[in-house]
Every structure is written in structure tokens, then in C-alpha cells.
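Hello,

Following up on my earlier ticket. Below are the two sequence lines again, exactly as submitted.
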Amino acid sequence: MAEIDRSLVGAVSAPFVVEVERGAIRKFALAIGDLNPLYRDVDFARARGFADIVAPPTFPTCFRPPEEPPWFAPLDRRRVVAGQTWFEYERPVVAGMRLTCAIRFVGVDDKTGSKGTMELLHQQTEGRDEAGQLVFTAGRTTVYRSAEQVAKASLA
Amino acid sequence: MSRALADCAPGERRGQDFPVITTTQLAMYAGASDDYNRIHYDQDYARSAGLGGVIAHGMLTMALMTRALTDWAGHDGMVRKVAARFVAPVRPGDVVRVEAVVEAREETGAGNNVTCTATAKVGERTVATMDATIAFARR
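Thanks for your patience. The regenerated structure is below:
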């Protein structure tokens, strides 16, 4: 049963600005257990030619709009699991960047797996610098499991 | 000991073992990534979601896989693309091992691009797979 609102396919969220902060990068690097000095040490990063400390490649996962987009907001979080994610970089994200991001609702696929039916929600995010130049593109496929499947598994 | 990724030919491999995943790490990752889905830190909620208990953020697994490649690449490598597919959940107490292999090496005007695939495993069980391209400037 289709539950995700497909009439919104193709819609783009309102643009939102992310100020990339040193503290946020360091906290993220610590959480993933990565002590790479590029992510922590300003002098080290500058000596390697970067303007400031560099963000780990998966860091833009925390670039979130102030409000969840209307195609995602109604989903039951219990039924959401990660499917696929990708990041493509024109250049690395570094502290001090001010990125304008927007999320596009790419589409939905229906899938029947061994555990039941699910919908696959595809979204894509772009981040551009203050000159309007593309810095990164990220894609995310979220698995939305059927209520039935989740109920059955929770009783197992 | 594997060679630096910049010098590797297709078929060369490297493995990396990560410290055991803890609930503390999941709480830290929730805060650092601003992902507060309770399936990652609330046991009762995660059970009601049919997951049998809390599971790690897929993006945390992806961060470990990416690190296996950036550690191999060293500071001269720049990630052009990383793409992960999540196959099975990772739970607190699990030890993730990432095995990476060079698939292709392509000369570009500026240097070369190395394409890799990687597999994250807990024991014998595959939990995620990855494709990645790392760019190296000519030295």
C-alpha cells in the first residue's frame, strides 16, 4: 500500500543555510572515532592547503532543514531504516563555509522483500557555496517498512 | 602491510578492524549527526519497531567504511564519491571489520582516480557495502 505522498515527487525543500563550524566537525569526528588531524587541527589542515579543518566525507548527513520536508515529516520513525546513501564532492567541505542546501524528493519505489512490503524513498541534497558553486551532492534512500511488517517483527 | 592507496593496482586489498560499537557511541553519534530517531538509543522503542533492540545508525557504519578508505589513502587523497548500501543492522557489542579492494585506477589530467569497493562485516555477516572514488593529485 502506497503511504508516502507521491503527489510531491519532484518537489524541492526551501533552501536552508548551513554554517560549517569547527566545533561541529570535531564533535562529529569524535563520535565516529576518527582522530584524523585534518578533522581536528587547524594548523595541520592549513599546512596541507585547506582553508580550515576539513569535514569527514559523511558529515553533510547532519545538514538538516529547520523543518522536515512535507514528504518526510509524516513518516512513523519506527518504520524507517537506512537503505543507501552517497556523497559526491566537487571539493571538500571545510569549516567556515556557508552552504546553501536544498533537498529534492526524487521518487518512491515499491519493493517486496522476504520480510514483507516496503517503500523506498529517494531524496537528493545539494550544497552550494556563497558564489553559488556546487560543493557536494548527496543522495539518500530510506526504507519505509509496512506497518504490518513492523508489527509482526515486534511480536516475534 | 598494504601499500599506500595512491600506488595500488586493481586487486590490492586492505582490512581494518574497528573498536566494538557501544551504546555510548550511538548516543554520541545521535547528538553529533542530529539524528534522534529513537530506534538508535531507546531499547523499548526499538523493540516496538521490530528491531529486537537498538541498532547503530547506518550512517555510522558508513563513516567507518569511509574511514577505512581515507586511512588507506592518507592525506593526499580526496574523496570524490562514496556510496553505501546498508544490508543488515549493526548492534551495540558488534565489532565491525571493513575489507576494501582496489577495482580500477584511472589517469586524469590532474593525477589519478582510484576506485574501490568495500564490505563491512560483523563476523561473517555482511552489514554494508560501498563503492568509492578517491582522487590523488599528481606528485
